[in-house]
Amino acid sequence: MLRHTNVTVVPSFMLAVLIAGCGGDDGPRFAAPQVTVTQPVRQDVTPFVEFTGTTRSVAAAEVRARVAGRLESMHFTPSTEVNEGDLLFVIEREQYQAARDEAAANLRSAEAQLALSVSDLERIRQARESEAVSEQDLDRAVAQRDKSEASVLFAEAQLSSAELDYSYTLVRSPITGQVSRRLVDMGNLVGGTDQTLLTTVNAMQPIFVYFEAPERVVLNLLALKAADIAARPEADTMVSAFVATSVDTAFRHVGKIDYIDNTVDPTTGTIQIRAVLPNDDLVLFPGLFVRVRVPARVVRDAILVDERAIGTDLGGKYLYVLGDSSVVDQRYITIGYTTDDGMALITQGLDGTETYIVNGMLRARPGFPVAPMTEAEVAAAAGSDN
User: For the chain, what is the domain count?
Assistant: First the structure.
């Protein structure tokens, strides 16, 4: 017959405390766990607010066929830099050259007719003075002269139009930038009413970054700019922006905010902001998703702690702070900003004079003492052991 025995499980940490307490004054005692401690750093800090944005070209152009014809040749290498006015494509030119020559001939004919009309008008005026011709003949000569002048103007307009069409057979880059690939193969008919898209050109230097920011951030930026203007009227007062890509996360792309929209989006409560970046190395392309950091107001004499020392539970973020007799106290804190070097700005919960555990948190328990050592003491002890 089996008998059921009730077994009480005692956690090992509590069991050690109970055994130590039962040992009497002369009994065995367990040493407090060793931990590494340090104190908060006090210094001025410029926090950053971070947003998600997209890159756009400062200028983008669609290169289209403006006259109809067969695409004869291409004169660029895809994904290379082209200058404004560089030849990109040639559309068959014969018919447009013939139309231009015909318009030029019509202009010369109209000019000759005008010269004849002017000469006839002069002779009729002289004859009218001697009353050899009637007033009606003079009026008819004046009308013919005016008609010839109008014919010359019309012929000039026709020639200008023909020359313009002829120039459109040489498709040139409208801007300086990086050209894409050709979108139409050689030999195809292009142009006409649809003005066929042949390629695109994007200006890559500099490049824009657009992002949306809450109105409070925008007001803070404007306040920073106003403060800079007051302090340094002659200096560049444009607020800086720092950009990181999905691959390059170091926020090494630095630019300036050059545009803040004049309207708050009522659906999101945000305002569109634009930064302009040099992009000298051409690593930023239009359409990239990027992270943007913008500086906020400087926090004077800020309290900074090592981010490694911060724990999290249902109550929020906390630190293990040493009290009297090195007894651990769990102190809940509020973090305002984390720096790139792993320091957290504490806005609530500390006054800056505390000593907190930075290494060995798993060995510490709130309400129990620890054996604290500074990082310098730990390093010295490790050196002596070697």
Answer: 3
C-alpha distance from residue 359 to each of 29, 34, 35, 102, 330 (Å): 24, 9, 6, 90, 15
**Cβ–Cβ < 8 Å for 80, 179:** yes
Same structural domain for residues 208 and 80? no
Evaluate if residue 18 carries a pLDDT over 60. no
- Supply the range of the domain harboring residue 284: 48-58+204-298
Reference 306, options 376, 357, 242, 244; nearest CA is: 357
Residue closest to 36 by CA, chosen among 363, 370, 360: 360
> Can you tell me the distance from the alpha carbon of 369 to that of 332, in angstroms, rounded to the nearest whole number?
19
Share of the chain above pLDDT 90, in %: 55
- What are the pLDDT digits (tens) for 370-384? 999 988 888 887 766
pLDDT, one tens digit per residue, over 246-276 is: 887 788 889 998 888 988 888 988 999 999 9
- Asked if residue 67 and residue 37 are part of one domain, the reply reads no
Q: How far apart are CA 378 and CA 359, in angstroms?
A: 11
State whether 180 and 244 are in the same domain: no
Alpha carbons 377 and 37: distance in angstroms, whole number:
10
Q: What number of other Cβ atoms are within 10 A of residue 332's Cβ?
A: 13
Element (H, E) at 335: strand 334-338
Domain boundary among 238, 270, 298: 298
Mean residue pLDDT of the chain comes to 85
108 phi, psi to nearest 5 deg: -65, -40
Q: Mean pLDDT across the stretch 211-223?
A: 83
DSSP 238-277: PPEEEEE-SS--S--EEEEEEEE-SS-BTTTTEEEEEEEE
Q: Could you tell me which of 279, 270, 272, 243 has the C-alpha nearest to residue 258?
A: 272
CATH classification of the domain holding 168: 2.40.50.100
